[in-house]
Amino acid sequence: MSDEIIRRDPRAEWIARNRLHPQHAAMVEQGLAEVRGPSGLIRRNPHAVGFIGPNGIKRIDRLNADTQAGSGARRKATKTAELPLHRVETPDYYIAVVPDFVGGRLTSHDRDVLGQAHQLIREIGGAGAVLAIIFGESREESFDRAGVDRLMHLTGENYAGYAPEACVAALEQVEQLLSPRFWLFPDSVSGGFEIGCRLAARLDERIITQAWQVDLQTTFCRGAGGTSDISRPTERILLMVQECADPIDETRHEVLAIEAVQPKVLKSTLEDLGQVAVDPNSVALGEAEFILSAGNGVHDWDNFHHAATVLGATEAGSRVVVDDGHMPRFRQVGASGTWVTARVYLAVGISGAVQHLQGIAQCDKVVAINTDIGCDMVKRAALSVIDDSDEVLCELIKLVQEFRQREVTDAA
Amino acid sequence: MPPSVAAGLRITALVSVGKHPSSGRARRADQDARAVEMGLELSPQGLEVVHAGDAQEAILRDYAGMGLNSVKVIQQPVEADVVPALSEYLSADLPDIVLTGVRSESGESSGMMAYLLGEKLGLPVVTRVAEICSISGGRAEVLQALPRGQRRALRVALPFIASVDTAATPARQSAYGPAMRAQLEAENRGIEIVDAVRVNWTESPARKRPKRLKVVKAKSAADRFRAATAKATGEGGSVMRNETAAEKAQAIFNLLVEEGVLR
């Protein structure tokens, strides 16, 4: 929420009025509203008169028209609105939230669940704190804006990879230590559902899954595979669906670290052998994680397909390349094609039609390779490279091949 | 492709009555049918299909039509909690693998069954199994379905409980003749525990949830105007223009590594 405030500089205006001031010439030059022409007459530029008011409309101050000469010297200050800090000094009770934390970041689903936790605290009253328990490496920077009052960060090799049993053992210890009023999980395929169910089975407590409207007495949840609504008394362990509550957006929170619990290390019954290589082109475009997308700027198609193979990315294209027959129709991204949800979207030679930008609205990181710096895709992208696409792709292929070589030699 | 499996592997598939998502008619539940399919592929001789509920249920014949001689039914009333009866039945003669679906298509459909059985019987639970690749030396190698079409390999010791994902092989067609010939072996084990929580809840057809509205919290008219007309732009993307192609490629490469998409 940055608001541009226009600040007048009274000193600059004063200098502009005073033709005898040593800095007068420099100040007036910036304004250029009045210039003495070659014949000695004063030339007035009507477009340079006035200033842009705070609401974006041009204003001419006719009360003291002279002062406007110094308009160029007016400094612009940007106001960054600091959100109010929500403090919980000594919490009476906790509401524990275990976010999915996919890729080390809070997902929008996680934020909804954190919003739900605060909604419950408002209903209960008193000094309640939202405790977020995260596992593994963190890359999240905005815990405070997501509504995390207390944060327990569990890292280490116990929780590396797939270790649901270690996670549940840690959560069980949290239960003994802090006994949170509620346990909230996102009901998602990326971990929340599994951890929540395992914890409930361990604690031998009733659970509510697919909950979408929760207050202290009753909960509405989906039943029968999502075809019915069940209204039932609220339980302590809740698995929330997406958009169950509004995320926090008007307060900041403290994010005080809580010391991590140290559960006894038990040998896991599930041995993680790592992710298996899947042919990226066999993954449906709508759920692909990493997409290499081609637009009209791609000329060397062999090179493009080679790049997709080397990078291990799913191929996609804009409408133009599909119409031209370079790609099959089911690879089209955009309004009349597929709406993709990739975490990284590498757009090669796509200038970004509105329909295409709609299709990639849910992508986290967009990288653009384009020759035109003014195109809409560059404005959307987190990283844009202004260059010929084929050249950059060749260099990228080289780098990735070196990277893979290094990995092989490191492993050997 | 029949995986390399030790002979005499004993598998129990737990099945339920499904519900078609659009018509609402009873059918064999999709994930449960896939579990039966997985069992038939692994060990057609050692497969036992168990249902806890009503023995008169006609849908059980659809499972039997996949090529089963019999379906075991543990008699339970509709409002009963089936976990105690099932765990008692399974613990009497523990099979090597217990297969279930991830979530049922009727009733509460919480998806807790596999975890509760795992906790009661003290067995490891593997969730969202797409394929059981091999079983040797009392250990199974399992492929787990992850979001975005990815797979993870796990190794787990027998016996274990696995919930079968929709990514597993689709179930074969059900044939009418074998379905009619198969026997439904009803059994009453005398355990009927009524689900006390379920008694005081009300169930109704699912209401469509409203879409979340985009609320613009702008202070001034200019801000509201900007919010209504502005195009989708990322905030503060970096632009590389004058560097060499190698430097630009390096920047992209760094971003890909940082995001963890290069595997």
Structure, described:
The complex is a heterodimer of chains A (412) and B (263). Chain A is an alpha/beta fold and 412 residues long. Helices cover 28% and strands 25% of the residues of chain A. Chain A has helices at residues 10-17, 24-31, 108-124, 143-146, 164-178, 192-203, 301-311, 319-323, 354-359, 376-380, 389-411, and strands spanning 2-6, 34-36, 42-44, 51-52, 58-59, 76-80, 85-86, 93-97, 128-135, 150-154, 182-186, 207-214, 218-223, 228-233, 237-240, 252-253, 256-257, 270-276, 290-294, 314-317, 344-348, 365-370, 383-386. In chain A, α1 (10-17) packs across α2 and α5 (164-178) packs across α6. The two termini of chain A are 52 Å apart. With 263 residues, chain B is α/β, with parallel strands linked by helices. Chain B is 27% helix and 27% strand. The relative contact order of chain B is 0.16. The model of chain B has no long low-confidence stretch (mean pLDDT 87). The chains are: A alpha/beta (412), B alpha/beta (263). β18 (270-276) of chain A pairs antiparallel with β9 of chain B, so a sheet runs across the interface.
Entry summary:
By secondary structure, chain A is an alpha/beta fold.
SSE order of chain B: EEEHEHEHEHEEEEHEHEHEH
What is the molecular shape of chain B?
extended
Largest contact between chains:
A-B, 91 and 82 residues
Number of helices of chain B: 8
Number of helices of chain A: 11
Distance between the termini of chain B: 28 Å
CATH homologous superfamily title of the largest domain in chain B: HUPs
CATH architecture of the largest domain in chain B: 3-Layer(aba) Sandwich
Class based on secondary structure composition and strand pairing of chain A:
alpha/beta
Show unreliable segments of chain B: none
Distance between the termini of chain A: 52 Å
**Beta-strand share of residues of chain A:** 25-35%
Q: Report the mean per-residue pLDDT of chain A as an integer.
A: 86
Q: Please provide the count of β strands of chain A.
A: 23
Unreliable segments of 5+ consecutive residues of chain A: 65-77
